[in-house]
Amino acid sequence: MKARPYSSIISRLRKSGLRPTRQRIGLSELLFEGGNKHVTAEGLFSQATERSLKVSLATVYNTLHDFTRVGLLREVGIDSSVRYFDTNVTEHQHLYFEDSDKLLDIDPDENIICKRPSFSGGKVVRRIDVVVRVAG
Amino acid sequence: MKARPYSSIISRLRKSGLRPTRQRIGLSELLFEGGNKHVTAEGLFSQATERSLKVSLATVYNTLHDFTRVGLLREVGIDSSVRYFDTNVTEHQHLYFEDSDKLLDIDPDENIICKRPSFSGGKVVRRIDVVVRVAG
DNA sequence: GTGATTGCAAATCTTTTGCACTAAA
DNA sequence: TTTAGTGCAAAAGATTTGCAATCAC
Predict the structure, then answer these.
(1) Where is B14: in which H helix or E strand?
(2) What is the largest CA-CA distance in chain A?
(3) Which of B84, B2, B38, B33 is CA-nearest to residue B25?
(4) A76 found inside a domain
(5) How many CB pairs under 8 A join A and B?
(6) What is the pLDDT of residues A80-135, one digit of tens each?
(7) Is residue B2 part of a domain?
(8) Distance (Å) from the C-alpha of residue A134 to the closest C-alpha of chain B?
(9) CA distances (Å), B94 to each of B19, B30, B78, B81, B120, in order?
(10) CB of A93 within 8 A of CB of A109?
(11) Which nucleotides of strand C lie within 7 A of protein CB?
(12) CA A43 to C1' C20, whole Å
């Protein structure tokens, strides 16, 4: 029950330098309302279709990339052939259940990393991807 | 200068339950001689062609999967659209240079992980994938 | 021989692209 | 109006599959 969710989506898009089009607003609702999510392009496209948001698959791809570029989304590298996007853009790690293909965030308090390597020569650690793969 | 490298390749394949065919032997030489490597199917196929090993791309894919299945290789999940295979099957982490697409093993002494989560209900941590992404 | 392996070409699947059309500012 | 964004259909890549030919045992 947030106040004025619709216009807050619009202003979020504006702040990111993206025009609040019908498609971007609709996809934003799917993505950013109701907790953190991990989505694929096809998955988001299906959801949109189910909720009768008219949008093309190409636009879903464009939108996922645009949102990632401006920092509203983050890409998660699971080694399969599909790309996952995460609405949680804070530093955190992932739990991947191999049997069910489910992806979960690891509670930041449970941080698994204890050391961040550093580099000379202008090289920077852009991020550290951690995926705990669970089976059974 | 290992002794009898050829026959050790053959026995390694036999022990893994794979018939030592000309293609598998040739690809094994490319993969397992001269230190740990990270390869893609296309990359290995090119190497094979350069060294005039006659093998089809489909067989390279089959071989990479077969080798992974029996534990001679391990897949590395960089989030790009290509699959990397690692000849180092021991527990270790990766360094990925985004600008050059280079992938390096992290020295096991530099272990970045300090905590291994555990699960109940028959769930097991199969492995923890870590990729330190470096830019610049 | 016979069952595993290979190679080719076609198929599949995800993602990207070109470009005319539409909508936001 | 002017530029960004959209949608379609086609293209591009990586990987897989089906099946006949070949090879290892």
Answers:
(1) helix B5-15
(2) 51
(3) B33
(4) yes
(5) 106
(6) 688 999 999 998 999 988 888 788 999 888 888 888 888 888 999 988 999 999 98
(7) no
(8) 4
(9) 31, 21, 9, 17, 28
(10) no
(11) 4-9, 13-18, 23-25
(12) 28
Strands of the sheet containing B84-86, edge to edge, are B38-39, B84-86, B74-76
How close, in Å, is residue A135 to chain B by CA atoms? 5
Tokens of A47: 């959801």
| Residue A2 belongs to some domain of the structure | no
| Domain range for B79 | 7-134
What tokens appear for A16 in the block?
């990111």
Whether the CB-CB separation of B88 and B73 falls below 8 Å is answered with: no
A95, B114: Cβ pair inside 8 Å?
A: no
pLDDT in single tens digits along all 136 residues of chain B:
544 556 899 999 999 999 999 999 999 999 999 889 999 999 999 999 999 999 999 999 999 999 999 999 999 988 678 899 999 999 899 999 888 888 899 988 888 888 888 888 899 998 899 999 998 8
C-alpha to C-alpha distance for B124 and A135, rounded to whole angstroms: 5
Instruction: Establish if B14 belongs to a structural domain.
Output: yes
- CB neighbours (10 Å) of residue B98? 14
**Cα separation, B84 vs B81, whole angstroms:** 10
Q: Does B77 touch chain A (CB under 8 A)?
A: yes
Instruction: Pick the closest to residue A129 from A102, A93, A81, A84 (CA basis).
Output: A93
- Taking all residues of chain A, what is their mean pLDDT, rounded to a whole number? 90
Indicate the SS3 state at residue A67: helix
Specify the CATH number for the domain of residue B105: 1.10.10.10
What pLDDT shows up at residue A6?
67
Report residue A115 as tokens: 């050391």
Count: domains in chain A: 1
